[in-house]
Structure prediction request, 74 residues.
Amino acid sequence: MKTYKFKTNINCGGCVAGVTPFLNELNDIKWEVDTENPQKILTVQSENILEEEIKNAVKKAGFEIETLDFEQAS
Prediction:
């Protein structure tokens, strides 16, 4: 299982609800947003997803997203 971490501006329950249908369109992923983290970390786990597919889904939902490397995410 591959894990991706992203910095986003998904900062509340309403935002999570807004992005949910877009992320749920992606096949075979588990995801969560840590809205308590100042960087609003979106964590996605999947075997078969490309990073760009995740980014495109979040942008389509109207949110900002950028890839974090391991050091930034911890």
In short: The longest strand covers residues 2-8. The beta strands are 2-8, 29-34, 41-46, 65-67. The mean pLDDT is 92.
